[in-house]
Specification:
58% helix
C-alpha cells in the first residue's frame, strides 16, 4: 500500500484531527501532496475537504497541528510560521500583536536550545512584542487553557494598541 493509501485508510479509525497530524507530517516530509489527498476515496468527503483546507506542510510537530486547530476553532486570528523582526521564524503571531511558541522536549530540552529560546524571547521583546510559550503537554492536554490565556492576552494587547 502507498503512503497516500495508508493515510486514506487511516480515516476509518482515526479522528480527523489525528488524520490531520499524520497528513501534516507527511506533507512536511514531502511524502504526500495535497493532490494525493484530493484522490482519497476511503476518507469521507467532508473530512477530506476539511483536511485540504486545514493541512499545512510547514507544520513541524503534532503539537503545532493541535495548536493551529485550537486557535482556528476559537476564531483567534493568527499567522502560522511567521517571520518576526529580530527573531526570525516563530510558530504563531497572534493578530500581529504577540508571539506564541509551542515547545516540545525533543527540540527545546538541551542547554543550547534553552539559551537560544531565551535569546529569541529577548529579541521579540526588544521588537515591541512578547512571547507566550506553551509546552507540547499543555497543547495536548489543556488546549482550552491555552486558548483562554491567548484570548486574555489578545484583549490586553488590543486594549494597549487602541488605548
Amino acid at each position: 500500500m502507498t503512503p497516500a493509501g495508508a493515510l486514506d485508510e487511516s480515516g476509518r479509525c482515526l479522528t480527523r484531527v489525528d488524520q490531520l497530524i499524520a497528513l501534516d507530517a507527511a506533507l512536511e516530509r514531502r511524502i504526500l501532496t495535497l493532490d494525493d489527498v484530493r484522490r482519497f476515496v476511503t476518507t469521507p468527503r467532508r473530512t477530506r475537504e476539511w483536511l485540504l483546507r486545514t493541512a499545512d506542510a510547514r507544520t513541524q510537530s503534532p503539537p503545532e497541528t493541535l495548536a493551529r486547530v485550537a486557535l482556528h476553532g476559537a476564531k483567534i486570528p493568527f499567522e502560522f510560521q511567521a517571520s518576526q523582526p529580530g527573531t526570525g521564524r516563530v510558530d504563531f503571531v497572534i493578530d500581529g500583536l504577540f508571539v506564541v511558541e509551542v515547545d516540545g522536549r525533543s527540540y527545546h530540552s538541551g542547554d543550547a536550545a534553552f539559551e537560544r529560546d531565551r535569546a529569541r524571547d529577548r529579541a521579540t521583546l526588544l521588537s515591541g512584542s512578547v512571547t507566550m510559550r506553551y509546552t507540547a503537554w499543555d497543547v495536548i492536554n489543556r488546549p482550552e487553557l491555552m486558548v483562554a490565556e491567548i484570548w486574555t492576552l489578545l484583549r490586553m494587547r488590543r486594549g494597549l494598541r487602541d488605548g
